[in-house]
Amino acid sequence: MELIRHKTIVPLVCFLGCIGVAMLVGCVSAPAPAPESGGGDVGVASYYADRFHGRQTASGEPYDRNAYTAAHRRLPFGTKVQVTRLDTGSSVAVRINDRGPFVKGRVIDLSYAAAKKLGMLRRGLVKVRVVLLD
Predict the structure, then answer these.
(1) pLDDT over 90 for what percent of the chain?
(2) Fewest C-beta atoms under 10 Å: which of 13, 35, 41, 117?
(3) How confident is the model at residue 18, as a pLDDT?
(4) What is the spatial distance between Cα 54 and Cα 51, in angstroms, rounded to a whole number?
């Protein structure tokens, strides 16, 4: 009887332990960027390199460097956001159609056209506020 109980309980405990670990790992995510006064997420924006022009994005559509689009880690595809450069106040509205950026501290990856409108082509990285439009 003791042998049967041992053969039943050990696998059950292992199974429940694995489920618990999986649940904990599933709850871990990157910290959200810090919202500052004015609302929205604040962090660093980057932009796509020209070599990505024409390649498929996570949404399935090709990346168009001349469109006002962007990559965001969590926002649903099709979401429109306003990206405002904090040091100059310039802003641009973009539509989320890709996932990323996957670099700590970066909140959005902009198309070439959007980055050009923000005046960040020379600098490459700028601090921005991202606010939902819809």
Answers:
(1) 63
(2) 13
(3) 46
(4) 8
